[in-house]
């Protein structure tokens, strides 16, 4: 009787073990950009919207690491383009942050959303200083003045980080040179605080002003 129970338990555990193996293989294939391995797993019925413990979908993992061929495969398999992980990131946000231009192009062509609450893909691209990605996102309809909860905009991010070409692109895209953080700091303030005087001069020529107030004590 005992042997019969052990055999039954072993048989019941086989599907669970197979599922665990499939899960590990899916995550590994996504991180490695293994299109062949992913194709085989999907053909066996694995879900293209499988997530890791942090909520990253296979598409996010592939986009984050710049695996364009795998991203293309997952898009064609109708993977969810705008899913969010535990941190609120989408595949497009991750691709923009890590500077993977080809992946950004694929996601945009597939219909990924460019505007969303929080740090948008455009803010990430501006912060990292990726002019080509900034240009792609603007062409796709990204809100040039979209702000995070704290008021961070693409222009503020680029000004703080010292990305002159990106600042010029954003201004050409009609970014507001005086849209400030909740603290009142403007792009001019952010640029000068970080020693980016060339950006400060460019912003001033575009009408940018300092949002800081100076208190003068009268003796």
**Which strand-content bin applies to the residues?**
under 5%
Helices and strands, in order, run as HHHHHHHHHHHH
Number of helical stretches of at least 4 residues: 12
Shape label: elongated
* SS-derived structural category: mainly alpha
The main sheet comes to: none
Short description:
The protein has 219 residues and is mostly helical. It has helices at 2-32, 35-43, 58-64, 68-76, 91-97, 101-110, 121-128, 131-139, 154-161, 164-172, 187-193, 197-205.
Give a structural overview.
This protein is mainly alpha-helical and 219 residues long. It folds into two domains: 79 residues, Ankyrin repeat-containing domain (Serine Threonine Protein Phosphatase 5, Tetratricopeptide repeat), CATH 1.25.40.20; 106 residues, Alpha Horseshoe (Serine Threonine Protein Phosphatase 5, Tetratricopeptide repeat), CATH 1.25.40. The chain contains twelve helices and no strands. It starts with a helix and ends in a 14-residue tail after the last helix. The C terminus is likely disordered.
């Amino acid at each position: 009787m005992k042997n019969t129970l052990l055999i039954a338990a072993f048989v019941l555990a086989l599907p669970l073990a197979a599922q665990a193996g499939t899960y590990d293989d899916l995550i590994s294939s996504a991180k490695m950009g293994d299109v062949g391995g992913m194709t085989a797993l999907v053909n066996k019925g694995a879900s293209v919207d499988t997530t890791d413990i942090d909520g990253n979908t296979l598409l996010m993992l592939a986009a984050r690491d710049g695996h364009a061929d795998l991203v293309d495969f997952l898009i064609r398999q109708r993977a969810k383009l705008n899913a969010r992980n535990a941190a609120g990131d989408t595949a497009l946000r991750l691709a923009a942050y890590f500077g993977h231009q080809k992946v950004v192009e694929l996601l945009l062509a597939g219909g990924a959303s460019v505007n969303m609450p929080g740090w948008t893909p455009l803010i990430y691209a501006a912060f990292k200083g990726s002019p080509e990605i900034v240009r792609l996102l603007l062409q796709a309809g990204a809100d040039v003045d979209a702000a995070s909860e704290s008021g961070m905009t693409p222009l503020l991010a680029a000004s703080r980080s010292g990305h002159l070409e990106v600042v010029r692109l954003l201004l050409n895209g009609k970014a507001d040179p005086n849209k400030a953080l909740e603290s009142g700091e403007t792009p001019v303030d952010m640029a000068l605080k970080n020693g980016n005087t060339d950006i400060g001069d460019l912003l001033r020529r575009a009408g940018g002003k300092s949002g800081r107030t100076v208190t003068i004590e009268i003796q």
